[in-house]
Amino acid sequence: MGSTAVETVIKPSKANIGVFTNPAHKLWINETEPTVEDVQKGESLKPGEVTVAIKSTGICGSDVHFWHAGCIGPMIVEGDHILGHESAGQVIAVHPSVTHLKVGDRVAIEPNIICNECEPCLTGRYNGCERVQFLSTPPVPGLLRRYVNHPAIWCHKIGNMSYENGAMLEPLSVALAGMQRCGVKLGDPVLVCGAGPIGLITLLCCQAAGACPLVITDIDEGRLKFAKEICPSVITHKVERLSAEDSAKKIVESFGGIEPAIALECTGVESSVAAAVWAVKFGGKVFVIGVGKNEINFPFMRASTREVDLQFQYRYCNTWPRAIRLVENGVVDLSKLVTHRFKLEDAIEAFNTAADPKTGAIKVQIKSED
User: What are the backbone angles phi and psi of residue 321, rounded to the nearest 5°?
Assistant: First the structure.
């Protein structure tokens, strides 16, 4: 007798709620779209879309910045706006046009929708899409919701990976994009500036790539201690109030006199970028992953006379399959980075925790696993 496939059916019952901010810097939870009724009927899905029940979402520094500052450069919160772009969940509805995903699949969401028509899209560098809709960047609503409709092509299967790790694939993608473009090689002495979540994940990637020695900098002793816990071989360097040139000398001392070949700058802070330019070797590279002010000063003639390459990064592209492989095979262990967990209904407390340096939070995640 032939076997008969059993179709998985998941019936959501809870109202869809989301985490909002606005130009007045308020933060609140409210009902949002798609409604639970629409999700139950499946009528709100467009061709190519699936409905995902979001299970885990990480709070990014940009989420806190949109809440507190109301903008990041030209990206401005001008109305009620849903935050969040680091998410994983379970497919609970599928448009008939989608064939590679089914109800019950566990997925990580790549939080962009591209035009597929501009030059960056057509040449494979879709992070530069001229008409991109990046979820959580105003005015595009984010993923901090119970249910989300999203193009299936941007929902990556994660198999038995935890939803928590699935959500961490987004910040891992940021680090991987930097790793791919900066060209870290086996045995390279590498400086990582900043021990926040992106800096720490970048550190783990550099370790996996065979960079050595590795030095990570920060102004916070607690974060440096955390870096040492997840990467025992790293040399930690506490940044003091010095000129960029003197700070660079201290960094090189931490390397044992070796000038780093590459600095991966994960803060976007002017003084840190400047110190990195002063620290790297002749012909070295400063690769800036961090986001900073619209304009900064940097040591132009130091970079010029030392042939220092200065490169920048904007989000990521084509990283999710690689990120999934790295986590599935244990090459990069993200499990220790999530330090605080909250229910979706307690999202306000989660944001307050993420925004307060005194909490010692590295990555705060918001859960909706019921």
Answer: -60, -40
Task: For tokens 């899409």, name the residue.
Answer: 129
Confidence of residue 9 (pLDDT cuts 50, 70, 90): confident
Any idea which residue has 């005194």 for tokens? 358
Tracing tokens 């910040």 back to the chain, one arrives at: 171
What are the tens digits of pLDDT across the range 151-189? 999 999 999 999 999 999 999 999 999 999 999 999 999
| pTM of the model as a whole | 0.96
Distance from C-alpha of 40 to C-alpha of 53, rounded to nearest angstrom: 12
Q: Can you tell me which residue has the tokens 């992070």?
A: 127
Token reading at 5:
């496939």
Q: Which residue has the tokens 């590795």?
A: 214
Backbone angles phi, psi at 40, to 5 degrees: -60, -40
> Any idea what DSSP says for residue 345?
G
Given a contact cutoff of 8 angstroms between Cβ atoms, the answer to whether 332 and 163 are in contact is: no
DSSP tag of 5: P
Distance, CA of 108 to CA of 93 (rounded, Å)? 15
